[in-house]
Amino acid sequence: MSTSTTARPGAAANRRAASDARERSKRLRLAGVVGVLVVWLVGWLVLRGRDTLFLATGESNAFHRWLFEARERFDLMAQTNFFFETVIGGISDGLNWVVETGSETFAEAAFPRPVPEVGWLGVIALAAWVVYALAGTRMAALVTLTLLACGFLGYWADSIDTLIVTLVAVALCVLIGLPMAIMMSRSRRLTTIFTPVLDAMQTTPPLAYLAPLALVFGIGAPAAVMVTLIFALPPLVRIAAHGLRTVSPTSVEAANSMGSTKWQTLRSVQLPMARRTIIVGLNQTTMAALSMVTIAALISGPGLGQPVIQALSTLDVGAASVAGLCIVIIAIMLDRVTTAASEFGEAAARARRNVRRRRLVLAGSAVAVVVAVVLSRLYLQVAAFPTSPNLGAVLADWAAVAQAGFVDAVGGVTLAIKNFISFQLLNPLESMLGDTPWWLMSAVIVALAALLGGVRALLPTVVCIAIILGTGLWHDTMLTLAMTLVATIVVMLLGLAVGVWMGRSRRVDTAIRPILDALQTIPPFVYLVPAVALFNVGRFTAIVAAVAFAAPAAIKIIADGIRGVSATTVEAAESSGSTRLQMIGKVQLPMARGSVVLAANQGLLLVLSMVVIGGMVGGGSLGFLVVTGFSQLEDFGKGLAASIAIVALGVMLDRITKHTAARFGRVDTG
Question: Which of 8, 43, 170, 330 has the fewest CB atoms nearer than 10 Å to its CB?
Fold first, then answer.
């Protein structure tokens, strides 16, 4: 009894001592951060404008020229080298054939026919029947209405092309990703090997994929499919592997005890029990694929991205709005259908008494689908989508008028916001980052990485800085970093304000969360349209689009963190007389600081990806260089170097924020 009584106070004292040591260590690190920032400020004031490695827009360095020459050598090698000519060329030709065949079958004129092989009536009937079989009546109706809407908006062929490329990429993701997920669920060694690769694939901003894939596969449908495949693969692999790992061990042991082989256990137990989780991964992969397909229009990928780019390049807000609306409704359709498919399969399995009736309905409707397909091949009226009513032209005119009226009404407010953020935040930060000597700025970043994230953040940071310096685009990278940081600050302010509000009120959460879910469904490309409509082109437009794209994720993470604070802790603070502000500032936010730092990590990466895409609307810096690398052949080397710098910047920011979250996100409860 006495030994136990003595041991408990000793253990408690040890925990308090360890907690005090951790707090002292954190205070020392934060003091070090302040010291580094002071040194940076003084160095910037004294050495401003020296050794900035500035490279003018029309200039290039030896590395850029080497990349350009490497492209020419690569093109020559692709015509003579067996691997590139046979393997890469075969893959490219195969993907091109699949996409072109799908397009000529369902979307574009199939020579010598003036219309596709299957007209619009047959396409809608076939799509509705497939979705009915997978997800039920409501989703079949949603698909029908979505396709009709795209057609009457004037983008039938582009919409179908978008769906074709998306579905081809998703099918390849399933063929490659599901076996990877199975292997990861069974082998820790393979998980260790695959995880860094998946991390790099998810960390890389989407625009950075385009240049290297265009180099290997050229521009067009094959490169669009491959870049979409690479970008969309990680969610399916990660989520499916998690689902397979979390299948009840009891069920697996029961199957093994009955003599099932590994394949039989996988097919009969693990895959069925993880089905819903796998479809969630498929949902995320499908949404990622759609967002990348639209961006792949920069490398001549078919689909709705093309009219959006053309409209943005001429500042035709009306046309961009209509094409963007088509992308949004397709995204909503794909999101709802894949989500409903996971629930519908389980419900159909439970309702066995309706199986016979359902089979009869499927068989009868299949006959109707065949009739619709035949009619769409024989009659022009149901082959070529009707040109009237032309809702797209009406909506484009309305959008242009509404945009002009709105800008006239709130132009003063938007200009004031633009000037405030530009002159008070963006310009000073760009000057501090871009005009500081490269060696001092590098030392500051390395020191901050070491103090905030430790050795795990330090080593990747050093490597990434070396890569950025090697590209010769240090100054442009710092300007991109400045826009990213400003947008992230705004995202976090919104995240804290709205997230705390949602976390403290169920009613507010119920009202706002569906809006955030809908905003996260929209592909990032589409956010450029309203940003251009409100602020014209320029770097601030890229920041606005980035904030709109990243804020929903940050808000939801912070709201969940606030709601996850122990009810006992909240009640204790309330009983001690804490005010609302004291509760938020001294209890809930400190207890949820892990979620806040995670929100900063995710917000930062989402902002970076969108800021880079903003290069298409005057965002400048690395994104602009990537875009010009596609449009002007002589700038390809510089554009490819910019892609490399973007990847290095993204990995560096991810590692710093992720390891900072791991070190500072813990809350001591002992």
Answer: 8
Which three-class secondary structure state does DSSP give residue 97? helix
pLDDT, position 667: 43
Query: Given this model, what pLDDT does residue 17 score?
Result: 67
Instruction: Say whether the peptide bond before residue 389 is cis (omega within 30 degrees of 0).
Output: yes
> What's the angle, vertex CA 551, arms to CA 422 and CA 596, rounded to 5?
105
Sign of CA dihedral 334, 127, 144, 306: positive
C-alpha to C-alpha distance for 50 and 493, rounded to whole angstroms: 34
- Domain 81-389 fold is MetI-like fold (1.10.3720)
Residue 237 CA to residue 256 CA, distance in Å, equals 25
* DSSP structure string for 507-536: HHHHHHHHHHHHHHHS-GGGGHHHHHHHH-
What is the Cα 518 distance to its own chain's centre? 14
Answer for the pair 68, 637: CB distance below 8 angstroms, yes or no: yes
Longest dimension (CA), the chain: 96
* Cβ atoms < 10 Å from Cβ of 130: 14
Give the contacts of 265 (CB within 8 A, at least 6 positions apart).
Answer: 252, 255, 256
Amino acid at 514: P
Task: Determine contact, residues 345/272, Cβ cutoff 8 Å.
Answer: no
Nearest to 89 by CA among 175, 224, 211, 218: 218
Cβ contacts of residue 162 below 8 Å, gap of 6+?
A: 290, 293, 294, 302, 303, 304, 305, 327, 330
User: Cα separation of 575 and 610, whole Å?
Assistant: 45
Structure tokens at 597: 């730092």
Alpha helices in 267-390 (DSSP H): 271-273, 275-295, 305-313, 317-350, 355-378
Q: Are 660 and 452 in contact (CB under 8 A)?
A: yes
Alpha carbon distances (Å) from 80 to 68, 83, 85, 88, 380: 19, 9, 7, 12, 46
What is the torsion angle, in degrees rounded to the nearest 10, for the CA atoms of residue 604, residue 606, residue 612 and residue 617?
-120
Buried b (16+ CB within 10 A) or exposed e, 415-428: eeebeebbeebbee
* Per-domain residue ranges of the chain: 30-44+399-664, 81-389
- The stretches in the chain having pLDDT less than 50 are 1-3, 7, 667-670
Distances (CA, A) of 118 to 131, 156, 171, 670: 18, 13, 22, 68
DSSP string, 109-136: --TTSSS-SS-HHHHHHHHHHHHHHHH-
The single-letter code of the amino acid at 558 is: I
Closest listed residue to residue 538, CA positions, set 329, 371, 303, 312: 312
Task: Say if 30-44+399-664 and 81-389 have the same CATH topology.
Answer: yes
Eight-class DSSP state of 380: G
CA gap 32, 27 in Å, rounded: 9
Token couple for 110: 């199939």
The per-residue pLDDT for range 33-46, each reduced to its tens digit, is 999 999 999 999 99
- State the pLDDT at residue 670: 36
Residue with tokens 């309330």: 574
Specify the pLDDT at position 668: 41
Q: 3-class DSSP state for residue 386?
A: coil
Q: What token pair was written down for 59?
A: 């200039």
Residue 615 DSSP code: G
How far is residue 612's CA from residue 621's CA, in Å, rounded to a whole number?
8
DSSP code of residue 209? G
